[in-house]
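Subject: mismatched residue count in predicted assembly?

I count 808 residues in my input, but I want to confirm that the predicted structure covers every chain. Input:
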Amino acid sequence: MDIDWRRNNSLNNFFFNCPSCNLDSHVIVEDFLDKKLQKILNVKAEKLNHAINKGIIKFFQFHGTPALQFKKDVIKIEAGTVIYFKEKIEVIRGFPKIRRTLMLSPTLKNHFKDKIIAEEKMNGYNVRIALVGDEIVALTRRGYMCPYTTKKAVEIMDLEDFFNDNPDLVICGEMVGTDNPYVSHYYEEIGSLGFRIFDIRKKLSNDPLSIKDKQEILEKYGLPAVRVLGIYSVDEAPDKIKKEIKEIGKAGREGMVLKDPEMIIHPLKYTSSEAHADELKYAFTYPFDFGRDFLFSRVIREGFQAFENEENEKELQKRAHQLGESILYPMIDTIKNVDSGNPASEDMIIDIEKEEDTEAFMRHLHDLGVYAVLLKIKGKKAVVRRIHQSTTDKINNFLKGGLY
Amino acid sequence: MDIDWRRNNSLNNFFFNCPSCNLDSHVIVEDFLDKKLQKILNVKAEKLNHAINKGIIKFFQFHGTPALQFKKDVIKIEAGTVIYFKEKIEVIRGFPKIRRTLMLSPTLKNHFKDKIIAEEKMNGYNVRIALVGDEIVALTRRGYMCPYTTKKAVEIMDLEDFFNDNPDLVICGEMVGTDNPYVSHYYEEIGSLGFRIFDIRKKLSNDPLSIKDKQEILEKYGLPAVRVLGIYSVDEAPDKIKKEIKEIGKAGREGMVLKDPEMIIHPLKYTSSEAHADELKYAFTYPFDFGRDFLFSRVIREGFQAFENEENEKELQKRAHQLGESILYPMIDTIKNVDSGNPASEDMIIDIEKEEDTEAFMRHLHDLGVYAVLLKIKGKKAVVRRIHQSTTDKINNFLKGGLY
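Triage response: the counts match. Full output below for your records.
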């Protein structure tokens, strides 16, 4: 919920801990932004003010606590960053964008030094779990607290000891599985819902623990880590990873994140051809919602991967045919489906305990601007239908004779 | 060449025919725009002024004549419109964008009445030929006078009688053939260079002649028209055109423009699957120059065409495989080529008579912002190499380890 933050008392209370003072709240907030927040974030006040005026930084209220959400990057502060004004200021930084390598060689050698640890990149959604006051919250990529994710995270994992001992750490991981309201993907070892942790980062600084420290702390608290696929020297990495990525693809899995053991150098991602195809299939099931944004970059990845693999005619042909089929087949299925009178929609299954869970999740989707309806509740599962309106409307228009 | 139009004497001379008057030229031009141009174009002066201030309408000089070029649509005045301030004002309107039908049925029946004339849409570049003063000029789509096109148009066709009798008509057609500096495509009946006329329009109003009037006038002056592929009732059109477009595709040709015989209803275009594939092949030979813009819309056309054709599994597969190959193969060839140290480039052949022809054309390309070098002159042919810089630079960057 957006609030009129310039007139918001709780914000003022927090800033000066002086509810009875009669200072103009506008001045107080401006003053706070100018003097305090710029020091905390190490971003100039004028940049913060500009971002607030442009709606890039939004004020909202979370369980009565005033808070800020960064919709886009503001200098070094990542999109998805959330700042809670509790007894102390809690800054949970956005998960940093991981850049992609198109060519393993020479990129890995240029980018890393000595060793590379390859962790599995799983196909789910990115979640940060952190303590806000005495509450554990799970944030999705853009910085929204998802009630379903929050509930399931603490169900799936025993997080209490971890956060009691480490209130200033943020758990970054992937929510995966089939009963997943954002990205449903079957993993044999996961089944309906699971969580895999890839990073432990510090609040405010966003500094990640080294791989070793991360592994130790996860082991200590019995928390689930993503798989390590290999540890390579920079010289052997391209060949090893070329082989590994084929295996990952064959197993219907996504790809890998390549990391400096010390986590000082930024990680890079590299994905399988099958993952590109799967993403295109999804995007072209809803072509007018996702097609345009997804298409070009996946095609480019395929081109460079094929080139680096020095694929023969047959391999190339297989890749090209898979590309064409991934684009065309789902689109035609959706056109047929819309032609039959159905909307372009996908059904998401969520685990529920009580009716309020579903309501909270539906409200959350609504807040995100997602058009979804509760289809049915069957025992402990709810089926939520997400309607892809742009695809539905555009296809209907063209079928009725609309011009392109 | 852009000129400081607010201080341009020839413009003032034209406006008031009074070279010795001492009025401030700024005032004169503003006055002209406010009072005269808005009446001529039937567009409010404030809209014209806004477009001038935004650089959407640009002043330039053509052979000493002041002129205006519309870079984008301004209300009803199309992008590509050029206005010459000669003894009289010559307004050559931009060629109207032709919209596309994705579904033949029910679109054709909704859009047209009674009859549809299907003319061939050829794969070349759109040219408008008109008289400016006593000079015949050929304009490309965006409203640039191309010296090569102008020279070849009057060589290929005997236009003098036509323009003597019809100084207020504009010939709209396609320059096609292999010796074509913009879009090279082989047509058996054309060979190296040819022109095919699809519309005759009126200066200023942009009103087209009816098909019958157009055919009569072209016949009278011995000017070459595009092929008529068929005349259909709106009821039979979808089936007939479905068959016809397959033949067109098999023959390696582009598609058709569907027209109201009276040219009162706007024409529509419809293209073959092979044309989509060919365009994608071209675009993905230079993926970072054209790939993104070309890709999505061609994919969408393929999807609806396949759906409307009710293609069986084998036909669908053929279409999907062709799509994938058209995207991936040329891209990989270009990556290989750039990896070998070559730029991503294409060679264009132009007919020349004397050195000045080549120089004028190279200057024209430079004015368009096209990076091209004269490779060689061999007899009456010049080979111009166009460098696609973005593709060359980006691929080089990724090959050297640049991140995506």
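Chain A has four domains: 2-92, 99-269, 274-339, 345-387. Marking this ticket as 'not a bug'.
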